[in-house]
Amino acid sequence: MINKAKILIVDDDALNRIILEKTLSDEHDVYLVTSGEDALAFVKHTQVDLIILDIMMPGMNGYEVLVQLKENSISQAIPIIFISANNRHEDEVKGLELGAMDYIGKPFSAAIVKVRVRNQLLIKQKNDLLEILVSIDGLTEIPNRRYLDENLEREWRRSKRNDSPLCVLLIDIDHFKRYNDYYGHRAGDECLKTVAKTLAAQCERGGDFVARYGGEEFVAVLPETNQQGAIVFANKLRNAVNDLNIEHNASLNATHVTISIGIASSESSQAYTEKALLEEADSGLYNAKKLGRNQISAQ
Question: With bands split at pLDDT 50, 70 and 90, how would you rate the model's confidence at 190?
């Protein structure tokens, strides 16, 4: 079953809302709000694929709503189609310059609305696929360093804005160079893929993720998680890798593949940037190795 696209219609005119809903609801999930303020509140808690936005509304007009949508990392990638009874070219130009993807004049044709919505959704689908491809590590098929950098920065800002805890875990496969030397690089790649898949599978909450940091290192990002919760999660990761029981006869601390983990928490940290928080997790990882590996150390 193909998931329907979610379309938000923002218009203070009841008749326009009824017509647009009737036009689009056969093929898409349609949501209706009557003001710009309601639209901004709606996208904070519901993901949508496209917004049809009226320009002339009481309170915030469509231009003001568009600017705020584009300034918010959550909503900035949502394609927006303006609709307006003002068919002046300067209004259309202004909307497109602010970031709208298309412009439909009132009164509108249902057929035109359908085609333009379909075109924008196809463009978004292709852009989403490209974004996924450039954010995935080619070997392990989990998020890559680029994805980590972008999303850790976003979660750091959100943590500071909401005064909520954020934890970062730096994970290293113990004695992985010895594994490669003993079993060969092809076996090493298979080991990396298996461990990566196992680590990522432990993320059950929507905001949590594991990314490949480089080589045999991975990073887990846990928003709205305190240090104690991060320790519980780290043990879950360590146990999951131990349970794989991947033979490692060249290891100096076990007969199977193990991991060491350093934890940094924004609650106990003096870090002023997300990069500094990652550095604290690196210090924790160094300490975990000093303790004998297959260990967890929280800073």
Answer: very high
Backbone angles phi, psi at 281, to 5 degrees: -65, -35
Helices and strands per DSSP (H, E), number in the chain: 10, 10
Q: Can the peptide bond before residue 107 be classed as cis, meaning omega within 30 degrees of 0?
A: yes
Per-residue model confidence (pLDDT) at position 2? 58
Token pair of 138, please?
Answer: 């080619």
Mean pLDDT of 8-30: 95
Which pair of structure tokens corresponds to residue 204?
């059950």
**Residue given tokens 């290293």 in the structure block:** 172
Whether residue 23 is predicted with pLDDT greater than 90 in this model: the reply is yes
**Helix ranges (DSSP H) in 163-247:** 176-183, 185-201, 227-244
CATH architecture of 6-134: 3-Layer(aba) Sandwich (3.40)
For the chain, what are the domain ranges?
6-134, 145-298
Structure confidence by residue, pLDDT tens digits, 101-127: 999 988 888 999 999 999 999 999 998
Peptide bond into 79 cis (omega under 30): no
pLDDT per residue over 263-287, tens digit each?
999 988 788 899 999 999 999 999 9
What dihedral do alpha carbons 119, 121, 126, 132 form, nearest 10°? Answer: 170
C-beta of residue 75 within 8 angstroms of C-beta of residue 33: no
- The model scores a pTM over 0.70: no
- Residue 216 annotated to the active site: yes
Annotated catalytic residue: which of 92, 131, 150, 216? 216
CATH of domain 145-298: 3.30.70.270
